[in-house]
Amino acid sequence: MSAASKPADGRDGDINPDQRPASLDDCRRCGLWRNATQAVGGEGGRRATIMLVGEQPGDKEDLAGLPFVGPAGALLDKALAQAGVDRRDVYVTNAVKHFKWQLRGKRRMHKSPAQVEIRACSYWLDQELDDVGPRVIVALGATALGAVMQDAKQTLKAAMGKVLKRGNSRVLATFHPSFALRSPSHESRDAAYQAIVQALARARRLADRPDANP
Ligand code: URA
Predict the structure, then answer these.
(1) What distance, in Å, lies between the first and last C-alpha atoms of the chain?
(2) Which atom of ligand 1 is nearest to the CA of 66?
(3) In 3D, which of 154, 136, 142 has the Cα closest to residue 200?
(4) Does 10 have pLDDT greater than 70?
(5) What are residue 170's DSSP bridge partners?
(6) Which of 56, 91, 129, 186 has the highest local Cβ count within 10 Å?
């Protein structure tokens, strides 16, 4: 197996929970750095009142070094605009900061992160949450929800429509934008997209008027 196609899933003992790296570029807390171009940190102001959390960077994000700049990012931008949320007012990040992939033909295809990798990377998400202190966190998909709530057993189905809490932040859960892109029918794609828009609009209302009933 070539180095490029070697699976980087941390099962080879590549987990170093005691490492406390000063920067993302130095992070060796799990093995995903080996096959990634670079770490992709969060983007946005420290004073953002809304934080969006995705799963992990994709192929485009890995190359650009920025979160949500590929197809899922384009759908997210469209949903943000429709929900009346300016992306410049939002902090956007991922539960896992390195792209995990497997080769299919010549393409690097997304591979879901393992729980040990998500836990290792919570070191960074926790710091981002402390630094930004968002009023509202929107978890995009099940991986993000588990990471934000520090509970891998949380299900998207049970959480959607509810207002959860993490510290002083309220937490809303919705579909991952990639789910809205890949759903099999036009109807299911549209329903997922509308659910994302609704969650973002609710996040805006909650962030603007934290004491109001959303
Ligand atoms: N999917 C994610 O979860 N995050 C990104 O940054 C891009 C795609």
Answers:
(1) 52
(2) 6
(3) 136
(4) no
(5) 136, 165
(6) 56
State the Cα–Cα distance between residues 203 and 163, nearest whole angstrom.
10
Q: What proportions of the chain, in percent to the nearest 5, are helix, strand and coil?
A: 45, 15, 40
**Distance between CA atoms of residues 204 and 83, nearest Å:** 8
Ligand 1: centre distance to CA 211 (Å): 31
Q: Are strands 50-54 and 90-94 parallel, antiparallel or unpaired?
A: parallel
Taking only the tens place, the pLDDT of each residue in 120-161 is 999 999 999 999 999 999 999 999 999 999 999 999 999 999
Cβ atoms within 10 Å, residue 9: 18
Provide the whole-model pTM: 0.94
Distance from CA of residue 26 to its chain's centroid? 20
* C-alpha 21 – ligand 1 centre gap (Å): 23
Closest ligand 1 atom number to CA of residue 140 = 3
Per-residue pLDDT, averaged over 92-116, amounts to: 97
Residue 200 has pLDDT above 90, yes or no: yes
Contact 35, 4 (CB under 8 A): yes
| pLDDT tens digits, 25-62 | 999 999 999 999 999 999 999 999 999 999 999 999 99
